[in-house]
Write a structure and sequence with these properties.
transmembrane helix, globular, mainly alpha, membrane, cobalamin biosynthesis, transmembrane, Cobalamin biosynthesis protein CobD
């Protein structure tokens, strides 16, 4: 049943993409931002952030845990939950217009569209590099992380992972405003993403230039300030044989990111290559899930 649920959710995502209206994660993010604006002030900001993580995540996860226990209906609910926690088709629909803009020479539009999918300053970002990095990192967060936790803990696990990941995207900045309030969300996101990120890095390596990807993962990932993004992007860059990283501007502040991967700087064609890498890795995951499910049935 696990394999059928995964395949069904992936197919729905491929056919329909994310819900056009009333996407649960979008509504959750707006709620999180509203609560942050109200409570991220005064004393005990770290404690407030921690409590709000529990208040926001626990009720929907417990509700889904109860609903998925209902015979037949619960299995359908599980597929729907996995569908809206997956974001591969949504990622493709954001990246393809960037590629089209680059191919017709409209770098202004490409830069603006790229800024929509990251937290970097539009005027300063390098479009190709940033877009490839976004594909690789979102492959971990919006695809393989959700699949991993769905396999481990069902729909409640996938939902909890994506809600925590969303809170990190909303609050997990190393700025004066968020360093205390967003601390719990950022640390929890690091924790729940620890294993999925490394499995994603391994998948990228196996589906690309394996030796180079493993070398980049081993030597470059420790230099990155994120324990999870480092392995994912180093292995992904190595698998694609491109160079990522370097100076990056976040909200007016320049940060020196380590160079990741080997080869030339990212080119427009590498956006498609990065999407194909994620697709191949997803095929690998689905094949393994089907195999493990078949073995479990036979045993």
């Amino acid at each position: 049943m696990l394999a059928l649920q995964v395949i069904a959710a992936v197919l729905i995502d491929r056919w329909l993409g994310e819900p056009a209206r009333w996407h649960p994660l979008v509504g959750f993010g707006r709620c999180a931002n509203g609560l942050e604006a109200r409570f991220n002030r005064g004393a005990s900001r770290r404690l407030k952030g921690l409590l709000l993580v529990g208040v926001l995540v626990a009720p929907p996860v417990l509700l889904i845990a109860a609903l998925t226990q209902i015979p037949i209906i619960g299995e359908l609910i599980a597929v729907l939950v996995l569908w809206f926690t997956l974001g591969l088709e949504s990622l493709k629909r954001h990246i393809r217009p960037i590629l089209r803009a680059l191919l017709r020479g409209d770098r202004a539009e490409a830069r603006q569209r790229t800024a929509w999918i990251c937290s970097r300053d539009a005027a300063e970002l390098e479009v190709e590099r940033t877009a490839v990095e976004s594909v690789l990192e979102n492959g971990s967060d919006a695809v393989f992380g959700a699949l991993f936790w769905f396999c481990i803990a069902g729909a409640p696990g996938a939902l909890a992972f994506r809600l925590i990941n969303t809170l990190d995207a909303c609050w997990g900045y190393r700025s004066e405003r968020f360093s205390q309030f967003g601390w719990a969300a950022a640390r929890l996101d690091d924790l729940v993403g620890l294993i999925p990120a490394r499995l994603t890095a391994l998948s990228y390596a196996l589906c690309g230039h394996t030796r180079r990807a493993l070398h980049c993962w081993r030597t470059q990932a420790p230099l990155h300030d994120s324990p999870n993004a480092g392995p994912v992007m180093a292995a992904g860059a190595g698998a694609l044989r491109v160079q990522l990283g370097g100076p990056t501007c976040y909200r007016g502040v320049w940060v020196e990111k380590p160079l990741l991967g080997e080869g030339e700087a990212a080119q427009p064609r590498d956006l498609s290559r990065a999407l194909h890498l994620v697709d191949r890795a997803l095929g690998l995951w689905i094949s393994l899930i089907v195999l493990l499910t078949a073995v479990e049935v036979l045993l």
